[in-house]
Amino acid sequence: MKLIIAEKPSVSKNIADALKIRGRQDGYFEGNGYIVTWAFGHLLQLYDAKDYDDKMSTWRMENFPFIPQVFKYKVKSNPRDREKPDTGAKKQLKIIQSLMRRPDVDGIISACDYDREGQVIGDSIIYNLKTDKTVYRLLLNEWTPAEVMNGLENMKLNTELRPLQDAGVSRQWADWVIGINLTSVATLKYQKGKGKALNIGRVLLPTLKIIYDRDKEIENFVPENYYKLQAIFKTQDDQEYEGTYMEGKEEKFKSKKMLEEVQQTLTDKSGIVSNKQVQQKKEYPPFLFNLSNLQGYITNKYKGWTSDKVLKVAQSLYEKKFITYPRTASLALEESLVGKTAKVLETLTEDLPYKDEVKFVKSKRIFDNSKVESHSAIVPTYLKPKKLSADEEEVYQAIKNRFIMQFMPVAEYEETRIETKIAGADLKGLFISKGKVQLVEGWKKVEKVQSKDTILPLVQISDDVDLIKHEINTHVTKPPKQHTERTLLRVMETCGKNYDGEGTDEESLNAILSGFSIGTPATRAETIKKLKDVGYITTQNKNLLCTELGRKLVETFPIKDLFNLEFTGRLEKSLNDIEKRSFTKEEFLQLIFDFTTKSVEMIKNEKEVTINEVTSQRKQNEVIGKCPVCGHAVIEGQKGFGCSNWKNGCKFVIWKNDKFLATMKKKPTKTMVKALLKNGIAPVKGLTSKKGNKFDAILSYRKNDDNDYYSWKMEFEK
After folding, report:
1. Residues in a beta bridge with 484
2. What residues contact residue 45 under an 8 Å CB cut-off, 6+ apart?
């Protein structure tokens, strides 16, 4: 009997389905020679500083730097009360421990996600619970039944994944040490009043600096005028075309006077076609998606999307077996996937109106081991979804379309360039006209990408043309654009390489594949969200801007290395090198501990400056209604709508993150709670079923007969 530990309940269900296990017990599935259980992501977390030493319960400057001799783990905290362990996590750990100790279990399989974080989740559970049984690793890129069965036949010993574990643990411990120490001393030094701490992090600060730098560039930008000289020519058969004056490669001129002198020589002149080039050019489809490119594409195309939301929706599609592993940096597929990819393509294109144009090819652009790091690019699986939510549909279609594009004909267009000289004028330059005509739509058909044609008249070299109009146009240089999540992700992914480029050149691709980046595909969205949550950045439409607090932090906080893209990129690369066995966990952690110790001492010796002043104002709590238990006022708190008599033991509360409502994608609102307290029922619109359908219902919140807790009841209007 083998025990499989998955990262989430949904994944364990996929594994159980693949193994045709029907028997579900409390906390696990069992049957056909396997037990399948699950975690809820991290069941364990690192100790808080105060767990090591009571004196760390209060922040005092003299207690820092604080670096534990040995890092210890505990059951993760209850999100509602951080002083207590999470009851669900505690219960599940006990179930996993009892299953690991069962005499009939002769091997344990970690089936957590195949990445740094997944390795730590599985290993922290298995090795903290202690076992002398053989531990295996199931390494999958998708959760389809065929892939699960194939993976179980090709497992590795977990000891072979030690470098991945070392990298994961190094990341976890390093972020703990930097976060705990520098957040504490920065808050003590630079903040007045009690409130949220000044958050300092290894990935947080360089990301903030990217946005700050762009804001400063825009602020300091001085617009300049530049000028273009444009002319209209007429052919012998009365067709017109426009040309722009160029000297060498320059068409934008700072000196208007110089262009005016050129313009004077044009009076009563005609032109002659001195050169004509017609080239047929190919347009290849954009590469397959990695996570950053998918996030950039979706946030740019649709309103209301954030990188964090894209990742959550992609994760849901992955757990439902419709796409491959989303947290990838790769833009290509492993060469071993050729046969499988051909079958997926056949399945997904059988109903397409242009299916005859789809042709499977084994191209280096698509299949290339040298461009794959850990996981291949994101592609659909062979399972076709029958029903998706609107959000899932948008992300799935983007991934599916990008995949199909790779196997459509290459788009082709004809580009014409005409050079027109002014006859009888001694000019350094000439007039350039460019035309473009789409010949083959190819892959653009998949997403109905429209190409704009610019058609030039048919002329030959040496043709005479009339110069019928010319004018100098004034233009103004524009400041750089504010960062959006798309452009920010691009800079984070390549650590500033290819800063403004949309494409992927060799330098930026090498940066991505060597891990020289800010954060990982999995953490970048979380970082952007956290910057918003802690108040360092804000959004304006799709643009990201620094807040006053964010600016003050960048300008005041003395540890400049933490704002430096190169420094952060090197740290991320070191973690990547640990995975590749070219750097050790011990070397990395020593580097982090030394950096933290020096940084704390530097902050202590800095002059006193206030970055943030927290003023606490007691706000009057609005009475929502009368408590059904004791009759006191129910008021809105940060985490729920609860009885104001809670100090005397009244337990009535409706939590804002209520799990029952969350299953239908709803949160309790003030209006809903008012109606419940006044009428005993509340009509609620726009609930979402498991299949993604919207429906309305009447909800009530009633005390259970056998205990003091309340449960939801649902009815439908007749």
Report:
1. 543
2. 73, 74, 75, 76, 77
Domain count within the chain: 5
Q: How far is CA 328 from the centre of its chain?
A: 10
Residue pair 148/19 in contact (Cβ under 8 Å)? The answer is yes
Model confidence band, residue 718 (pLDDT cutoffs 50, 70, 90): low
562 and 603 belong to one structural domain: yes
Alpha helices by DSSP H, 302-427: 307-319, 338-349, 390-405
Q: Are 340 and 532 in contact (CB under 8 A)?
A: no
Q: At what angle do helices 162-190 and 116-129 cross, to 10 degrees?
A: 100
- Kindly report whether the global pTM for this prediction surpasses the value 0.70: yes
Q: Are residues 128 and 105 in the same domain?
A: yes
Is 150 in the same domain as 56? yes
CA 496 to CA 509: how far, in whole Å?
12
Distance (Å, whole) CA 286 – CA 403: 10
| Other CB atoms within 10 Å distance of the CB of residue 318 | 22
User: What CA–CA distance (Å, rounded) separates 715 from 718?
Assistant: 9
21 and 128 together in one domain: yes
CATH code for the domain in which residue 438 is found: 2.70.20.10
Q: For residue 375, give the DSSP letter.
A: B
**Judging by DSSP bridges, how do beta strands 612-613 and 191-192 pair with one another?**
parallel
**Rg of the Cα atoms in the chain:** 31
Give the confidence band of 508 by pLDDT, cuts at 50, 70, 90: low
Residue 25: exposure state from Cβ atoms within 10 A (0-12, 13-18, ≥19): exposed
Residue 700 to residues 249, 656, 673, Cα–Cα distance (Å): 73, 16, 10
Strand partners, 469: 232
* 183, 557 contact by CB (below 8 A): no
Q: What is the mean pLDDT of the chain?
A: 92
> Does a structural domain hold residue 578?
yes
How far apart are the C-alpha atoms of 531 and 546, rounded to whole Å?
A: 9
Which range marks the domain in which residue 668 is found?
623-715
